[in-house]
Amino acid sequence: SLLDILKTFTVNEPCCDVAGHSPLHFAVARQTEEMLQILTVLLKSSLFDPNLQDRVKGQTPLHIAAINGNHKSIEILGEFSSGTPRKFDGMYPVHVAAKAKKLQCLIALKNAKADLNISASNDQKPIQLCAQEGCYDCTRFLIRNGCDGTSTSERASGLARGYLEDIVGEELLNFVSGDAQYSQEIVREAKRRLLDDLGDFIDP
């Protein structure tokens, strides 16, 4: 059987091709019943890492499934994957699904407990990608699931401005902010207060 053949491989020698594609990468490329059955067998064998990145592009099986709109593959992968998936081109699978306008993949990722509001390497949120691509259904889905389009840096900047307003007053801040002519004491105090609370806005 296929499972008996798979057992001849080890975790350290996962039968990858020269591009670093494991059988999982190939299994998620097409969403046929046969491929879904093969994907399940592969994952049950525990011989293949669901988060394995290929050597050429750095794609994981989840990324490939999202690109191709294979939401059923994502559902199966979600049963066996754990932890935060790796990035491909600075994006998590949820960003790939959002950019590709794959609503069913976003739903499958949500059911797999993926963070729908996570920031990519460029600080973009999935909902921002949906809006850029003009995908109304995906944008509405993310909004209904509590996502926002405020990036980490924007929230941090807003927090910093709030501290400055507390110190010098909103009217004065608006007057000087155009030239950024704050005194060094004001800036140092704002930074001190900001760093005390900024941990919530910094990705680990």
Automatic annotation (TrEMBL):
**Keywords, in A-Z order:** ANK repeat, Repeat
Superkingdom as given in the UniProt entry: Eukaryota
Residue ranges of coiled coil: none
- The record's ANK repeats, renumbered to this chain, cover 57-77
Repeat found in the keyword field = yes
Question: Does ATP-binding appear among the keywords?
Answer: no
* InterPro entries recorded: Ankyrin_rpt, Ankyrin_rpt-contain_sf
According to UniProt, the name of this protein is: Uncharacterized protein
Organism (species): Cryptomonas curvata
